[in-house]
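Think of the structure tokens as a kind of shorthand, similar to the way a musician reads notation: each symbol stands for something richer, in this case the local conformation of the backbone. In the example below we present two proteins back to back. Begin with the first one, reading the sequence and then the tokens, and try to describe in your own words what changes along the chain.
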Amino acid sequence: MSPRLTLALGALLAGVAVVLGAFAAHALKDTLVEHGQLDTWHTAVRYQMWHALALCLVGVLREREGGLRFTAWAFLIGSLLFSGSLYCLAFDVLRPVMGPLTPLGGALMIAGWVTLAVSRLRGR
């Protein structure tokens, strides 16, 4: 993925997080509260937004310095798996499939942060 695409996907991921957060606050709130899943939805939105912003940062760093390809993919795929699985779990959709995807997404997000830290410590 190019640096420009990295930044664009980060911005898109952030925009979708805003939409999903607003959707939960207005259209889905009663349903999510009734099923005890409002906190799950909020967690998904929060992690999606933070990792969208991280992806934007990585896009800027990639434009300036190059590298960080794995970091970009880890943030993108990790966010999609982690937050996406939580959105599905909030509505009990594909629970047997989505349950294992949540920690896998989380592990990818952690890997993204670790590789970002290592690249900064190495001066790249």
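Once you have a description of the first chain, move to the second and do the same.
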Amino acid sequence: MRDETQKKVLVIDDERDLCELIKRVLTRENYSVDCATSLAEAGRKLEEHPAIILLDNNLPDGMGLEYLQMHPMEFKDSLVIVITSDVSPVIEKDARSGAAVLFLQKPFSIKMMKEMIKTAA
């Protein structure tokens, strides 16, 4: 049974092992975590209005930032943390024109991810 005080986190990343690792770590930190490995799967799970979204930019069925910009209402109540290996000024500008406010550059440490989420939450 889910604790109603838990913040919902949605991890959108096609690396299943990374999703499971993040889920295990954040569940221990008292978050309710769900994973999606594609934008199509994420679209259905975004209806649950997660408080925090970890969004990979490079997914098998599209770019996370493009999806964010094309569907801003799906992200309107969420803090979006973009996971990307490319944090160029162009990528950052594109993300900030949507709902994203933070970036987590790959490769990242679990400690860094937890600190970013705690600060943002």
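Compare your description with these statements about the second chain. The first helix runs from residue 16 to 28.
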